[in-house]
């Protein structure tokens, strides 16, 4: 970063540049926008950033983001513990919860298998899911990965991994009311609800 800028501003621009989809020009615009921001708003943003590093944990059971472990969903005795929905990201949990259609538990993989991005099965929470299948009374696994090449590849890998430890487990996939190549987090509630109702048997 150029030395004509104060060190704190240059450091902020550098940090913004590390974010996905943010180039040097956008990083500079964001930094200078923050400089024009009222001090109280800037402090609120700073506290929010600190909060996600100090106040957020992964649920030890489903690996969703939460303020404590177990998360509210896993701790809810009214949820169906025999039903586990496997999703790629925490935002997918929020999208499915908005449908008010699903009353089971979740398992968050934190990504999808993508050789291009050098993301393999070992980088995801697949091993933890296999462990859950071994010890928990799960009767159905719903594969709710995104309807994309990466999502389908991840679903197939997960299916093989869990079948190796439980051949009797019912495995379903969300119905194809979801568009190919789309992300679950952007789907509307009605589409997700129909997909959940119309899930299909795997294997």
Fold blueprint:
Elements: H1 7-17, H2 24-36, H3 39-54, E1 57-58, E2 65-66, H4 72-75, E3 80-87, H5 90-97, E4 104-108, H6 126-135, E5 140-143, H7 149-163, E6 170-173, H8 189-197, E7 200-202
Parallel strand pairs: 3-4, 3-5, 5-6
Antiparallel strand pairs: 1-2, 6-7
How would you characterize the overall build of this protein?
The radius of gyration is 20 Å and the shape is elongated. The strands form two sheets. A five-stranded mixed beta sheet has the order 4-3-5-6-7. The chain has two domains: 7-54, RecR Domain 1 (Helicase, Ruva Protein, domain 3, Orthogonal Bundle), CATH 1.10.8.420; 72-202, 3-Layer(aba) Sandwich (Dna Topoisomerase Vi A Subunit, Chain: A, domain 2). It is built from eight helices and seven strands. By secondary structure, it is an alpha/beta fold.
Keywords:
five-stranded mixed β-sheet, 7 strands, Helicase, Ruva Protein, domain 3, 203 residues, single chain, 2 domains, elongated, alpha/beta, Dna Topoisomerase Vi A Subunit, Chain: A, domain 2
